[in-house]
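Researcher: Please translate sequence to structure tokens.
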Amino acid sequence: MSLAGRRILLTRPEEQSARLLSLLVAEGADARLFPVMRIAPEPAAQARLAEAAVCADWLVFVSPTAIDQAWPHLQGRLPVSARLACVGASSARKLAALSGRDVLHPQDGNDSEALLALPELAAIAGQRFLIVRGSGGRPLLAETLASRGARVDFAEIYRREDGEPDWSLLQPPLPDAIVVTSSEMAAQLFRLAGSARTTTLQCLLYCVPHPRIAEQLAGLGASRIMTTRADDAALVAGLREWFSRHP
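Model: Translation complete:
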């Protein structure tokens, strides 16, 4: 078990970390929650979601969190005619299981660019898209759909707030790795840490599921970054491989 005894920190919100935590523990890792953000619902936007969905030809969910926050308000009220799309495969599996419907998603890649490259989204003039997400986020998806003639609206049904990581976990001996699964989490980690902890953070090994996150961390001064595919099992496999080669 190449992860036996390895101290690994998870920066996701606590409610999103259970599966990854259990997989790491099963590998013998000393995995700890280190949430740099928490998810806060937007009740008014959630209450309007089903009504907004009625008018949409497509519902696009940008993350598993978007699905978790939206589904209680869509269950039993999902428009029959609306098609479903997700940015990543893990989100698509989750949504397909909940809805019992096919979900359009990229087979290769797990970002807006990969979704937009699918032929189903090439000729969409006049179609209505409702993008279900948290407040803010990348504009690329909406801007590209609109440039193709689609009508785009947002359902921003949650917001991200500061988490409360246990900074004592960065005391020596330092963790063997830290898992960061979004660019927002990378920026949040360094912002919350402040200048006094920056050097420590720059020394750590980071495990990330997308090159864009790696670029963000590199820009913040991190030099040891490994990139895997974008699901929990792939993150664990990547860490296992890394430590098998770097005992």
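Researcher: Any highlights?
Model: The radius of gyration is 19 Å.
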